[in-house]
Structure formats: C-alpha cells, structure tokens
Amino acid sequence: MVAGDHRVFAVPGFSDGKAVRLQALDTASAEVSWRTLPADPLGSADYRQATWFDGRLMLAGPPLATGSGGAAARVRITWWDQDSDTWTKPVDGKVTGWDPTTVGARIVWPGHGDATSGSAASGGIYDPDADRWADLPDPLDLDGLDRASGLVVGSRIVIGEPSAGADSGRGQLLDPVSRHWTAIAPLPGPPRFAAATAASVDEIFVWGGGTAKEENLADGYLLRVP
C-alpha cells in the first residue's frame, strides 16, 4: 500500500489465526530498507486491510469467523502512530466490508452487493474526525456491486466495476459526504475481464483485458465524469 509521497506498507492479508507483522519502507530515508512494525493489537483476525488517512495508518479487520454461513462480522480498527511507533487500542467499528479506501475526509468500505437478495451485503462510511459511522446509502443499481473496484475519482469513489458491460451491471460513483450516487455510463462493447483501470480527479481509464471468449483486447476507453 502506497502512503503519501515516499512511504510503502506491506500489509499481510489472511492470517489464519497466526501472528502477523506489517512491514514499512521509507524511500526518503538515508538507508532505504524494509523494517518491521510492532505487532498490531488486532490479534486473531480473518484478515487485515489498511488505508492511509491524513498522515496516519489505519488497520482494519474482523475477528475470526465463528462459523460458516453467518453474518459478516463488523470491522475492528487500530491506528499506528509513526512518532511513537505504537498502535492505539482497537475499537469496534459499526460497519462490515472489505477494502477500506480513503476518499477525502472519509474512509469508505465499498459494498459488495447481493442482487439476488435485493440488498447491499456490506459496506460503510467512517468519518475519523467526528468518529461517526454510517451504512452505505442504497445504490442506484445493485447488479455488479459485488465487483468493488475502489477507484478514487476526486472526492468520490467507484463502487462496482467500470469495465463491466451494460448487460452485467456497472460501476457507480459515491460521494461519501453528500451520500449521493452517480451512475457511470456503460462501457461500449462486451464486458471486459481483468481489465486495467485507473482514475484521476475527473476521469476513469479502462484498458485491455479479455472477453468471455478468451480474446485479448488491445484498446481502451477514457470516461470524463461530471
């Protein structure tokens, strides 16, 4: 995970209940080398994911699942203080979800939609400054939200897959402050699988990928969003 202009973190994913340690790399230091952070206080967790927010590292993960088929566990979070090289006491969040992403002054857990049940299965919004939690607002279209991309476009985030075709769901832009959704125009042509995506403050770029017939695509599209 890239953090700021010159810092990189290696965040272990699934830990299988084992002790894990994050690694940090500061490319601006005199000696560029990886170092191990102190053990985080999340303990046994299904997985860990992180985001860089206002000069701080937030680490999140749910406790180990108690059984299959149950409801998703709410996340727990802890913050790493780079000055003292210590972690804060973990607190229980009020959302479920994966892939926390910093979007302006909010942290968003993209929702993974469930079109068959007719509801967003997970996701939420956190305002660290106010310590305020909120569920994701109901999206415009549930279909396709199981493919959360997490692309940040200015002060908004893409939830869903912008490279999906018109017949298989598509991405939507969420403003986590106003809680307003904006539909993204469907990509021309058939759905693309494993396409490369990127974003700027007002553009979404999709390139390459393959078709359902396993044909490689050597072209792409640029979408300017209002």
Automatic annotation (TrEMBL):
Gene3D superfamilies to which the protein is assigned, alphabetical: Kelch-type beta propeller (2.120.10.80)
InterPro entries associated with the record: Gal_Oxase/kelch_b-propeller, Kelch-typ_b-propeller
Domain of life: Bacteria
Name the UniProt record assigns to this protein: Galactose oxidase
